[in-house]
């Protein structure tokens, strides 16, 4: 009986989060996620059609931008730093299935994305990964292991392709469009 209740509760939370992602203003979306115990900093842009799982295990720093259609899986904890740019349709997973498990068991670990990181469109971050300060993940990359600070990675699986300047001091919160 408890299992059925948990399934219904999880489904309801999923539907509430889906509704929140459609609200017309960043401030409304952020307020509603804060009510669900997400920790979200100041000057954050959270664009529409995102998907969030377990918002009470989600932490987003100041002046961070989350693009349209981003998937934020916080079931095992997701920490996103300050001035992070998650472009459109990024997927961040903290939980997935063990393909060698006879029962298709779920396994995972938290994901950490440090300050000034830039995750480009349609990149995928898998469970247990830390993206270092100032690192860049190229569009379409699949990140299966930690990315060192100020490193640019790309490909499947993601590998280092360049280095990024360490002289970063921008504030992404100044460019957020309020209504989108």
Automatic annotation (TrEMBL):
Annotated GO CC locations: cytosol
InterPro entries: Hexapep, Hexapeptide_acetyltransf, Trimer_LpxA-like_sf
Keywords assigned by UniProt, alphabetized: Acyltransferase, Membrane, Transferase, Transmembrane, Transmembrane helix
Domain of life: Bacteria
Transmembrane segments: 12-33
GO molecular function: O-acyltransferase activity
Keyword Phosphoprotein: no
Entry's family note: Belongs to the transferase hexapeptide repeat family.
Name of the protein: Acyltransferase
The organism of origin for this protein: Mucilaginibacter glaciei
């Amino acid at each position: 009986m408890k299992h059925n209740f948990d399934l219904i509760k999880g489904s309801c939370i999923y539907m509430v989060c889906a509704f929140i992602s459609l609200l017309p203003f960043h401030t409304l979306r952020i307020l509603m996620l804060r009510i669900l115990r997400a920790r979200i900093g100041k000057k954050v842009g959270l664009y529409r059609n995102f998907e969030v799982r377990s918002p009470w295990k989600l932490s987003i720093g100041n002046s961070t931008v989350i693009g349209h259609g981003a998937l934020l899986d916080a079931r095992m904890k997701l920490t996103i730093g300050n001035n992070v740019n998650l472009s459109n349709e990024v997927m961040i997973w903290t939980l997935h299935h063990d393909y060698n498990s006879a029962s298709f068991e779920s396994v995972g670990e938290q994901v950490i994305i440090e300050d000034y990181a830039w995750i480009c469109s349609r990149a995928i971050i898998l469970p247990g990964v830390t993206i270092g300060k100032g690192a860049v993940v190229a569009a379409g990359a699949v990140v299966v292991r930690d990315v060192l600070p100020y490193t640019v990675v790309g490909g499947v699986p993601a590998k280092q392709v360049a280095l990024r300047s360490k002289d970063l001091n921008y504030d992404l919160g100044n460019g957020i469009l309020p209504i989108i």
